[in-house]
């Protein structure tokens, strides 16, 4: 046998195996970002049946909930609005002070000033249609008006103190629109934009829709979320976001799209790369472990290792609380 | 907005979305391969608790089971031995006519002569240790003796009529050893070798170990199955197998390794690429759907589409029976 | 300003800066390898004046010295022989049981069985000339005879239980020669070869020569260590070692050769990459800090971060004991 | 052994070793640039304790100091202001005729008209905060106002006769701002811009802060100097500077960033590449040699050879005076 | 105008222009190699009418001639045999001690031991046909027998002390044949092979044929020297030589083949690259200058700069004596 | 010998050699462009001593001279003004109807309407300084005013009927300025711009300066013609011209810059590539042949083959008349 074909010599010992991990496959607290669903009632606390162990919270509840996590090393959160305030066609309430996320940003910045606060920006939590853009009469997205609304909401979050704006709407041109707003505000250098660059129209989002009350009232999102099979659109979307100035790129969902993560990272090695382990992934790992198919910690660590291996620097995951414990165990 | 940045125009219509799918993301019966666990008792039929809906079968049961599937278009199976015959240190029984897989090969070739018969080759079903190679006193693999045994077993399957030999043992140099045997037998041109080229030491194999009674009696397989994080060893293993003559390459497990599939396919576009949707993946999709997190058909189709998008030509999956139905539904 | 040209938004916050670190720039205990100079006297302990804080030790002293380090997470050591046993022209004593390194290997394997033991292999500690190969009358290296001696020494270390053979001699063809020996011994899968692939004829080795008593008796090593300016030979040497079967590659010295590390890693991403922060680097960082030019911890961490950034997976450094403490602080 | 694996034949002779040096690794006077710290007192001469042998000088002292160096071949200098004139929040004095650097430019252009005069441009020598940009109340940089001030200072240096403007401030967009000023002045073709493109927040700057009295009054520069581990931001910064019209790029510090030099040069081979061997590097080589760890000339030449090998065309170094002598010796 | 399009700012000053030279365009003595024609008569000295100023010399004359050149920095020569000893069909005399080149090698090694001695190896100076290989009856080259003779001659030069063997014959496979001989002799690490890898069937060789009496007696060399227009064969020849172990590659002639030099260097950056400024080039530059079309020094320096720019590390040129003077002037 | 290393089999036969020529190395009349020096006196005819056989001509002489050449296939000419009309600082006369080139354009368009008429555009034939741009008091180019004058002259040629405008001045931004003028004139689609994109400050221009009376009155052109060694500026200049809309790119001079031609063509394969075999090249080939160093036809054909091989589509050469004959011979 050619000596270069004897591979066992490279990984027979635990330390050798760590060396084979190569660059960027370890997991540290700073690689994790915790999604938080913020509700209107400041003391609210609501379990989400499809995502066992995940809660919707008001800002007071949230503040208490975060304390032990920050102590364990939590560095970043991603806020979602779940509001019952009166909605309209264009999502005006998203930019209002009454949006519970605005309060959440301020509260975290007061209580945990070092915690990095990222905020999801979209129209779907605020529109009657539940769609991520303003609709025209023919049912198509009005891209121009949608951008105006998205920028308006993003601006209100920036003024509240958000560190990272994370637009998840998939409208064409939103990154540039947000960056232009930041430049006008004079705060382009104190706010990051993490783009949901490559977001597929996936069946893995099911539980989230319960969590965030975000299912569209009619139709689906296939006209703006990417077709499952499309590498091409995925690459074009990532490229566009880089050109428009995104500070970080994202691929969503996670596990079933690691090939896309790899390819985006290979093309854009200069930008930090996020991946979203979405609600359906959370649920299936949870239920699989509960049914005894595998050990939860082992399987979650394997999926996160895989995400890191495929190029992700940032992993948005509902398992963050458990992971902070697991990382300390090891 | 730069006109090349308006992406919605590329996928607002269902037909446009299909065009974006790009090459090789559709799923046809010939892309599927069904794993079958063959037991000693020719009329045996045993449910596997950790894999609801999957059975271990004797050759008679199997023959009956296959009939409707072949009618629906099944083109390929992958056989595994689950035997209680007296084992030893080197897995001698694997190469004996009493190995139930030998009978299964012959039976399928008699009853369904057009069905492509692939056979898993390893030592673990036949050794007392349950390890995939012959062990030395110091607990390390004796690579040379292991190759001799693997070749012996493969040869018995070839003589029984197998179309595809699929070594899953991860010993160094087994592809060349098998190909040399085939050349000596004069049947290199009637037997393919599908290498488990890139097989990780994964937590997703849990249910399979129940299914195939294949957990090692002691220790683990980390000295020969690849470390989860290692792109480097994965690429070296695929390269080696190509050089040694593998007809097809495989990545295993599936979903959490799509980045590896992408990279192997990019480096070896000339070879058909297989992916194994393993038992743990089957279980979590099943349980997730059962718990209402998502629709089973939608989620299975999404994962298979993802596998195809990442470069897989052949998908080995326990969902094959359902898929044959779903594909007919369209 | 074009929005993609506003870079500050990507790194104004500590967590954002960590994300920018990208893959593989964190430092963990498994990234460190501690060099140990082993002397004949089993209870010996000798300070090295040119490397303040570094010791030569006998095997008893070494065993005691290692205990707290292992407790703090030390995973790997690299042993060097410093012997006064009677030398000859071909370094025969290197392969003798009296070589103190042989005892050191056995002792570590007994006391700290999980510690990965790498051993430097060369002729210079054992030859009268102090050169790394056997010399011919015309002063040129006798490459063939040198390989025979190197393999002989390597074999004695393998039989003593070494996990990793690390040839530092720079003879042409030594990796293949060592791998052939391992294959003959039947232990190619339990011994790694970490090649000093790219070793330059550097002025940074000064203090080491005192430490290991390894200055050549006459002449210099420019005929076998690489010219400082040569990218080309560096790349050819790394390529050759990969083809000949090296499990890991090394660049030596470290800091002034990060461009070479980058280029070797880019060409050989499949192999773990080691870098040697050599004695002169240790000395200048130590003396620079002592003179108040910079803080020792900050500067050592910066150089190691740089090494990781340039592609190194393994860092061989005399600062390992301090680093194990510093890593726990942080 | 394969004949292409015999490498010794390529470098056994000194002339062969020179050939292996490949392109661009020799060092000539035109590869060197001497930093000069200019103080208010025209006859001032102040030693810098942390950089033994380096002086702060007034313009008369400087003129005398330069004479023998020019005679030995000095071709380029880089001027830094060290002024005690009354500072303010925006660094207005930087653009005033009283800035000692203005006088120094004129003096050199009068006395040594062929000497290329580069001038460092930043706000930190002139602001009360000691930061490189104008600060807003929230402690963040006011990027827009910072650019206005930087351009103002650069313009005063251009009008005084500077050949090269070298902005070291790391504000977003300064290269374009300076080039726009030059175009307006009608002298874009007689002034070069050498950008400190890739300047890391390094611990190697310690002694310089004493030399130039440039430590910030509070906080640090991590919000505008690059994170140590970030290849991505480094590449984005270099790319931006090329697009904005920089005539030369720079990486700073030097030794620990040769991988970055290599990568920037590979991506921008069309632009001359500078590297700054900073104060901490000077100090550690000096102290290391003083402590006997290595020979000063040998080690300085090795580090400069390494810089050239990694792609640097221009080396800014405090060793320039000694190097001019050493180059003549050889 | 976009600021990056103002190029004048990059080269308005002499020092800026030197920086633009980039890597590897300066010329130093070690970049030059002087061809010497050695005749039988040890005291011979013969002008060559077609190459004004170039001489054929015996070894005594040569020794005297070299003295001032070595004093001025000459580092390398390339020897050619011009013999009148009785020739035959296979060039046997080339390997005899009476070959004047054998004496020349020894003489130089005695008188100027540091001078690198390269020796041209071919059959044409020794065969009746004047062809570079042994001919078969059908007029085609007998490649196998040619290799035997070439190796025999090369071996006699090696035993005489040559540092570099430079085969110019263009037979298929000669590099491997020579390397095998060196390996057998045990001196692969003290002899370099500089291959005339890419030698075109050029009209620029005219004067050389007078100089070396090397015109073939009949026919031409188009069956073994490359067609003028062929990039493809040029690249294949260079690749082959690298694989067969050549230490240096060469392109010949020089000026009209700089595109080929560029392409070979780009593909083989790891190997030093030689270029031969052949006799016809020498003649036309000489005559052009004599006729007043340009200044000789300026035009020779421009052509050599061009050669260096295109990737050449070594320039074989008849202008070497003048260049050694010119380099000192500057 | 590996079978792929036997190269002789690819070129032993003349037809095989032609096949090896690859794409684009043949020479046809349409690959040639003839430079013509036009003087004020319409019947003038002046030999140029430094370019034996080349003439300066008035438009009547020119018309007669062209007749047989057109008959032999001449397809393109490049006109140069050599005028004695009163010059000034800004070259105003260049744009006047009295400029003899204006008449020449009209005459050719009348007499040989199918002949492609390219016209050199520069200020040096018309300014007192003899420089290619308008000078400021400090001796630097006034780039803005120069562009205005160049555009004015180009416009007068366009109005006279020129097909191709060929600016040779090397001012920054002239291609865009000329294209803007063409667009304003409404004739962008009937006039090509062939940019002297990459024009080096070469010693090969000597005889031309006599031919065109174009030596500058003082100083040299090194501030706007490219430094000989600069690949980087060459690539940036070609890139800029492509971006600004050049229809064809040119490298000048020819022979010593084939590496640059190769690289420009590799980067800009979409644009036709011109090369200028300049006066000094003409002279040295002429004198070399006259002195018997080589055959003129063979050597000219070899140099043109080399130019074609390196990527040139258009060759501007004074040998065009002879070549038209030689091409017919063959
Ligand atoms: Zn939405
Ligand atoms: Zn197994
Ligand atoms: Zn050694
Ligand atoms: Zn500053
Ligand atoms: Zn010959
Ligand atoms: Zn001109």
TrEMBL record, chains A, B, C, D, E, F:
InterPro entries: ALAD, ALAD_AS, Aldolase_TIM. It catalyses: 2 5-aminolevulinate = porphobilinogen + 2 H2O + H(+). Pathway: Porphyrin-containing compound metabolism; protoporphyrin-IX biosynthesis; coproporphyrinogen-III from 5-aminolevulinate: step 1/4. The active site is at 199 (schiff-base intermediate with substrate), 252 (schiff-base intermediate with substrate). 5-aminolevulinate 2 binds at residues 279, 318. Its EC number is 4.2.1.24. It is an enzyme of class 4 (lyase). Keywords: Heme biosynthesis, Lyase, Metal-binding, Porphyrin biosynthesis, Zinc. Belongs to the ALAD family. Homooctamer; active form. Homohexamer; low activity form. Catalyzes an early step in the biosynthesis of tetrapyrroles. Binds two molecules of 5-aminolevulinate per subunit, each at a distinct site, and catalyzes their condensation to form porphobilinogen. This is Delta-aminolevulinic acid dehydratase. It comes from Tigriopus californicus (Marine copepod).
């Amino acid at each position: 046998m050619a000596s270069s074909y004897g591979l066992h010599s490279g990984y027979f010992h635990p330390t050798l195996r760590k060396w084979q991990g190569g660059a960027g496959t370890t997991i540290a607290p700073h690689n994790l970002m915790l999604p938080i669903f913020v509700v209107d009632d400041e003391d609210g606390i609501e379990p989400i049946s499809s995502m066992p162990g995940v809660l919707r919270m008001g800002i007071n509840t949230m503040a208490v909930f975060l304390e032990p996590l920050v102590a364990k090393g939590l560095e970043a959160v991603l806020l979602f609005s779940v509001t019952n305030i009166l909605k309209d066609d264009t999502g005006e309430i998203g930019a209002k002070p009454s949006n519970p996320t605005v309060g959440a940003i301020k509260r975290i910045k007061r209580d945990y000033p070092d915690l990095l606060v990222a905020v999801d920006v979209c129209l779907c939590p605020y529109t009657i249609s539940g769609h991520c853009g303003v609709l025209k009469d023919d049912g198509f997205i009005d891209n121009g008006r949608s951008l105006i609304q998205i920028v308006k909401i993003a601006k209100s979050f920036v003024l509240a103190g958000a560190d990272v704006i994370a637009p998840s709407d998939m409208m064409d041109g939103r990154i540039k629109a947000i960056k232009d707003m930041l430049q006008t505000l004079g705060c382009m250098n104190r706010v990051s934009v993490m783009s949901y660059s490559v977001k597929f129209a996936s069946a893995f989002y099911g539980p989230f829709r319960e969590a965030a009350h975000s299912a569209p009232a009619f139709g689906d999102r296939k006209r703006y979320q990417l077709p499952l099979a499309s590498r091409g659109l995925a690459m074009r979307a990532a490229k566009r976001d880089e050109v428009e100035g995104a500070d970080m790129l994202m691929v969503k969902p996670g596990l079933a799209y690691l090939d896309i993560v790899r390819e985006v990272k290979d093309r854009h090695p200069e930008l930090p790369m996020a991946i979203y382990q979405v609600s359906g992934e959370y649920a299936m790992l949870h239920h699989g472990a509960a049914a005894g198919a595998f050990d939860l910690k082992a399987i979650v660590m394997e999926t996160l290792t895989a995400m890191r291996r495929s190029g992700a620097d940032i992993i948005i995951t509902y398992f963050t609380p458990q992971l902070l414990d697991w990382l300390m165990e090891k």
